[in-house]
Amino acid sequence: MSYNKEMFELGNHGSAIRELYEYGRKRRQIVGDMNVYDFSIGNPSIESPKIVEETLVNLIKNKKSTVLHGYTSAVGDESTRISIKNQLNKTYNANVDHNKIYLTCGAAASLAITLNALYSTHDELIVFAPFFPEYRVYSLNSGYKFVIVDPSPDFKINYESLERSINKNTKVLIINSPNNPSGAVLKEEDIIKLATYLKKKEKEFNHPIYIISDEPYREIIYDDIKYPFITNYYDDSLVCYSFSKSLSLPGERIGYIVVSSNAKDSDEIFKAVAGAGRALGYVCAPSLFQYLIANVVEETSDISKYKENRDYLYNSLKELGYELIYPDGAFYLFMKALEPNAISFMERAKKHDLLLVPSDSFGVKGYVRIAYCVSLEMIKNSIKAFKELKEEYDNEK
Amino acid sequence: MSYNKEMFELGNHGSAIRELYEYGRKRRQIVGDMNVYDFSIGNPSIESPKIVEETLVNLIKNKKSTVLHGYTSAVGDESTRISIKNQLNKTYNANVDHNKIYLTCGAAASLAITLNALYSTHDELIVFAPFFPEYRVYSLNSGYKFVIVDPSPDFKINYESLERSINKNTKVLIINSPNNPSGAVLKEEDIIKLATYLKKKEKEFNHPIYIISDEPYREIIYDDIKYPFITNYYDDSLVCYSFSKSLSLPGERIGYIVVSSNAKDSDEIFKAVAGAGRALGYVCAPSLFQYLIANVVEETSDISKYKENRDYLYNSLKELGYELIYPDGAFYLFMKALEPNAISFMERAKKHDLLLVPSDSFGVKGYVRIAYCVSLEMIKNSIKAFKELKEEYDNEK
């Protein structure tokens, strides 16, 4: 074989989301930008805050280019790690050590590195449906058995299914709150319940079970919900973060990993994280954006606009009679398809130029994900199409 | 095991180069910047060309931030790929297709991705000593048997050793010209000889043998040597490139992979490259720097300064009686240690505040690498220390 078949398959069949997005791009060229209601992709529509532009220009004009664009240490620039630590400890009253922060090329890198760092032979990884499809890719590439816990009615944690899935080989669970694709948020009581359950399981199996909290949407949370920072509730935990969504910088690939200082073998895990980064070809996170983050770690884009979108879309679709999960965070709305097969529902929605991602690749059947990180104007224009789609199904009954 | 032991080892024992660099950083704080002759690391000392700064500021001020910092397609922005194609085809009269260019987070990512994309069970990878130590890391992580060809006297290609090393399981060879650590350059006649040899071997084994040309130092080449671009000479080839050295942007992590359009299974390999990028956690190369490259792909830093350094250092050390490999490119000088054990030579040089990397990690014994990407002033000041070191050894004879 002249190439790696598994890698070929991954490259040949892009994600369903990317494929729908590509369709939308072509369709817009035919019928015009405002006539395609493209809810397919989680690309932030809100501009980065002005201070991002100002700080970048300031750094480029005033910092010596050989330093600004030079290698940082592999774990990341120290001043950046200290800024992140201060922000986390201040915001969440957490106990993060900057020597346990590893800067990465975004959340995907954070996850791939963390999963490689933790893996030993026979390990199993648990995810909760619905889940971000790339978890499966990183899991298989690291070597884990990939175990899916069934969804619960509120799209949080189904303990019956978890109890059936967990066993002595379980090494890691990934939680993702606010959730992509459902928008569900694990609140403090949810995290306390999960932590209590897992501490019991750690005792039962007599080894640590790690939680990886994948939280790029951490700041996109509505209605004054308090975000429970995982290391405050569960020792054996790691945080995977990205500034993609909070600062609208998805293309720049900047994020981090935090290893809880209280985790079992915390020092060794941190070194394994650095080693996994090295093995996967990461040298350091992009240096200009590291220095940016040192200055703007407390800032976010104007998230109130996503709330406006959520409220308008949720209320309008509810009124039309659609069945929806009320999203507490992120910029996704999870909607029940009007037929059991979400893929054929997606195809019929497409005929109304509504681009919705079927839930199948998220490990759940019969739903679609609506990414409302788009302009409010587009959302308003799209309601007519949602209405026609609903009527079409109603008329068939 | 609560973490991955192999990854832990990689993280716990950083590269010898990084460790020496860290020593230098601490030593400078004690004796002052100008009193440590730190030749340990390949961090470009020449500023990026002014147009880099101007273009970055211009992009940040004038391009919509949601586009500038947004996701590009996974293979990279099309205009950037077209610029790279045009530059390669114009400079080398090559036949590169922009649909066979995949933008990466630098050369390390290019190599890790490419090796993963090509690997099948039982495959072997050949490297030529001296070689960049991280090749071993990426090789093992992909699964290859790592096979080292002995050095030849001119640090180019030892065909006797190659003939002993190559076999039916050989899938890939990595060439690295200009070479890190020796500075040796494979000239056109060298590449023709290698291509002829490998074509014969492909016939003999009846399957493709790929050359990966790792060429981040491609533009740092002296004395009007013509650079032979590999795809012009050998069909089954891939290029791994980075702008780290040519534009002095090592921290920004921007580079690319070219899959030769004439390679056996070229289309499948390109898809496997995209798949491997996905599996290793790469989403896209940093977007701002992609757009930068689209504008400045023909530029380089002022490389004449490295030539000045090379000439001064080579001539001075030659005069002192050191045995040296004359470097045609890159910014490294390979010098014979004054005793058989390069590590103990390195330790004695350290006492003169001369930081030289022993050749052992490059797969060769008895040499040190001198990275002369430093100020000419530092080089001039260091000569006294080199003189004292030489005299110390001479007096022991």
Structure description:
Two copies of one chain form a homodimer. Chain A contains 14 helices and 13 strands. With 397 residues, chain A is of the alpha/beta class. Chain A has two domains: 139 residues, Aspartate Aminotransferase, domain 1 (Alpha-Beta Complex), CATH 3.90.1150.10; 247 residues, Aspartate Aminotransferase, domain 2. In chain A, the strands form three sheets. The first copy, chain A, has a seven-stranded mixed β-sheet with strand order 2-8-7-6-5-3-4, sandwiched between helices. Chains A and B meet through helix 1, helix 3, helix 4, helix 6 and helix 7 of A and helix 1, helix 3, helix 4, helix 6 and helix 7 of B.
Keywords:
Aspartate Aminotransferase, domain 2; homodimer; globular; 4-stranded antiparallel beta sheet; 397 residues; alpha/beta; 2 domains; 7-stranded mixed beta sheet
N/C terminus separation of chain A: 53 Å
The ordered string of helix (H) and strand (E) elements of chain A is HHEHHHEHEHEHEHEEEHHHEEHEEEH
CATH class division of the largest domain in chain A? Alpha Beta
Q: What is the gyration radius of chain A calculated from CA atoms?
A: 21 Å
Q: Residue-averaged pLDDT of chain A, rounded?
A: 95
Number of DSSP E strands of chain A: 13
Q: How many domains would you count in the coordinates of chain A?
A: 2
Largest interface: A-B, 88 and 88 residues
* CATH 4th-level superfamily of the largest domain in chain A: Type I PLP-dependent aspartate aminotransferase-like (Major domain)
> What oligomeric arrangement do these chains adopt?
homodimer
What proportion strand of chain A? 5-15%
What is the count of DSSP helices of chain A, taking H or I runs of 4+ residues? 14
| CATH architectural name of the largest domain in chain A | 3-Layer(aba) Sandwich
User: Which strand order spans the largest sheet of chain A, edge to edge or round the barrel?
Assistant: 2-8-7-6-5-3-4
